Amino acid sequence: MKNKQNLKGLTLPQLEEFFLKIGEKRFRAEQVFLWIYNKKAKSFDEMTNLSKATREKLKELAYIENLEIAQVQVDSESNTHKFLFQLIDGKKIESVLLFGNKRKTVCISSQVGCAVDCGFCATAQMGLFRNLTVSEIIDQLLTIERDFEVKVTNIVFMGMGEPFHNYENVIESAKLMSDEKVTGISQRKITISTSGVLPKIRRFTDENHNFKLAISLNATDNETRTKLMPLNAKWPIEALLEESKFYSEKNRNKITLEYVLLEGINDSIEDAKRFSKWCAEYNCKANVIPYNPTNSDYKRPSKEKIERFMAALGDKYASVTLRDTGGKGIKAACGQLAVEQD
Which of 16, 94, 172, 243 is catalytic? Predict the structure, then answer.
């Protein structure tokens, strides 16, 4: 593939530039754009409305990168599918397809591994190998839709990696995913989750994106959060909450605060009350996610403790959802994605 241009991951204007550069008409770009993203073609041979000569020319100058599905696991209880993808350099990532009510949600990875080092997250235990390209990010969606004949309704960047450490590629891929000529998925049905990278949250706010934004909070005091998430020493809770308020006021959109519930660490009644009041004060929504064990240092609270925490949250101050994700049996639930690299 050396010296050839990968056409997957390019926007329509970028494709137009490429086709003009190789001496082809501008309209060819839209034809190829639709084949790659809408019809999910894996090769130029599938592009039947292009002449044979054009297809042969493209084979000489370009290629279409495709992820390889190395393994699929299915949780029979929740019908959650976990996909192990092999990248062109041999590295591996995981994505998840979740079914719920009328939703079909794909959980997308943005990096091979992660550098944030959250103690309860399996991906963090891998360390960081590299960022994913726009092609590798969007092809998780395209491959799942094509090979499993499913129409995805929602996308969440909550897979492997810290999305805001790969900001440009994540935003570019999310824009492509929401293009009406690609999937037609509304930007309001695409959620990007961050552990709290403050400068990128401000950039996201200033750029006025319509994608939903979620912050993984996971504690109501800085000492606890710094132990769970070391980046809190740089960007503490108070700063994140103020940034959330600024975002809500500027964009008229509520940030979602995600809260992984860990037994004996952040599941007290005091935590619940403080968390609920914050959500109201800073105009945030909340997702409470009972922990799915990946590390022996942390435990999932009992059903009774979860119910007690939710009762203490109440509905007086905030919009709170208990999000007990499926896929625990195949390690596809929140915080469980990790791949042993060669």
Answer: 94
